[in-house]
Design a protein that fits this description.
- The protein is built from four helices and six strands, in the order ββαβββαααβ.
- With 111 residues, the chain is an alpha+beta fold.
- A four-stranded antiparallel beta sheet has the order 1-2-6-5.
- The mean pLDDT is 93.
């Protein structure tokens, strides 16, 4: 039997779904575990625990849309997550290619 692991993660609600980000991308241990054992994943938010349907977001356009939403909605958190500079970076002209390729994004569906 595999060891049960707990990893506290920041989450946000995005279009009525739960989204989590791995700033370390595919190198994050929790991402590797989710990919290897998707049926064993449990999520707890507050006092509610559920077994989510997991969706890894890979489409570049969707990832870019989510990054821009995150920055526009949570600019200070974006600074901590991926170094967004509120004073010098511009949402419309910044090149997000490297960030899109680096970040792993996961939607947790509460079906």
């Amino acid at each position: 039997m595999e060891k049960k692991r707990r990893t506290p993660l920041e989450y946000r609600r995005y279009e009525d779904e739960i989204i989590i980000f791995a700033a370390r991308g595919e190198n994050a241990t929790w991402v590797k575990n989710m990919r290897a054992y998707p049926k064993d994943v449990e999520a707890t938010i507050g006092f509610h625990t559920f077994k989510p349907r997991i969706e890894f977001i890979s489409e570049v356009g969707q990832k870019l849309k989510i990054i821009k939403w995150y920055i526009a909605t949570y600019a200070k958190a974006a600074r901590m997550l991926f170094g967004w500079d509120l004073e010098n970076d511009d949402l419309e002209t910044s090149n997000f290619e490297k960030l899109v390729n680096l970040l792993t994004m996961v939607l947790l569906h509460e079906d």
